[in-house]
Specification:
By secondary structure, the protein is of the alpha/beta class. It is built from 4 helices and 4 strands; from the N terminus they run αβαββαβα. Helix content is 24%, strand content 17%.
Length: 149
Amino acid sequence: MSRWPEQPNDIIIKWIKDRSPSLVVADFGCGDARLAKSVKNKVFSFDLVSNDPSTPLDSSSIDVAVFCLSLMGTNFPNYLQEANRVLKPNGWLLIAEVKSRLDPNTGGADPNKFVKAICELGFTSTSKEKQKSKDIEWPELKPCLYKRR
């Protein structure tokens, strides 16, 4: 990541800083909770191992849900459904993912199918609308493999 031209977390931090500090944020897959340390907003940080344990969130209780390189589990649709549950109507879902996981030419998922599946949850490019529960055909994302360097 240190060689990437832009760090996804920096882009998300800037996006949040450019908006109201009153927005409540949930950082799903927070790692070292850098987002929470970088903005004035109230941030709930969740990770498999988190240095900032938070309590479960109520339905429709947050304004922004963030997944920054954190949709690694095979059950990633459950994570997105949980974000949908806790987001307020017209809330923002921000996803930053490794390009290769959404590149069918390298074995990744079709990005159009991924976006379509998210839209079937009720998301659009500008707002979130509540939808009735239905079966969604989620694409299989290429697993994250880490190499020791």
